[in-house]
Amino acid sequence: MKPLILSIFLFFFVVKNSSSDPIVSAIEDNWNQIKSMSGQFEQIDQEGNIFGGQFFFLKPFQSKFIYEGREEDIITNQSLMVVVDKEGRQIDSFHIGNSILKKLLSEDILIENKFDIISLKDDNNFYHLMLKVKDDKSDNQIKFVFDRQSLDLKKWEIYDEFENKTVFKFTKIKKNIFISKNLFVVKYN
Question: Where is 2: in which H helix or E strand?
């Protein structure tokens, strides 16, 4: 009986871990321990324009980007990306569907279940993880850059189907802090 139980255990252990890269698993474990996060961001759009501000993530699915020097901010939830004015009133909204941000901000993420791993590189004390959402027919991809020691998210680069790139750099990160759900409230006129 013991050999049968041991065989079953080893089978599931090997199946679970055979396709998992230890670096991807470590990044995934670290990311899943984060329930909230805030800090500063710098965004560089495809034309080279640079915007900065504060960001807030609250799992599951909520994010807010407060831009300095711009009239609009961005709030996301499970289904929408909402452009709001500085008082939180909706200006416009877009369905986010099966977006990368939605998957990233889910409660717990299994990277290899949600994404195709395009590449993983260890370069200059950073891990560069290039992903594509599974079953996404577009050519949209995202590269995450994580600190090799802390596994903190330092940057992401979003590549759309036209090879346009938008970069977000993250600094002054605070993890697992209290963030009020009121921060993500949208006022509909």
Answer: helix 2-18
DSSP 13-31: HHHHHHS--HHHHHHHHHH
Is the CB of residue 131 less than 8 Å from the CB of residue 158?
Answer: no
Residue 57 one-letter amino acid: F
Please state the rounded mean pLDDT for residues 130-158.
90
Give the pLDDT confidence of 28-70 residue by residue, as tens digits: 999 999 999 999 999 999 899 999 999 999 999 999 999 999 9
Going by pLDDT thresholds of 50, 70 and 90, the confidence category of residue 3 is very low
Cα–Cα distance measured from residue 136 to residue 120, given in angstroms and rounded to the nearest whole number: 20
Q: What are phi and psi of 46, to 5 degrees?
A: -65, -20
Cβ contact 33:168 at 8 Å: no
Backbone dihedral region for residue 53 (phi beyond 0: left; psi -120 to 50: alpha; all else: beta): left
The DSSP symbol for 89 reads B
Indicate the class that CATH gives domain 20-184. mainly beta
Residue written as tokens 């289904």? 79
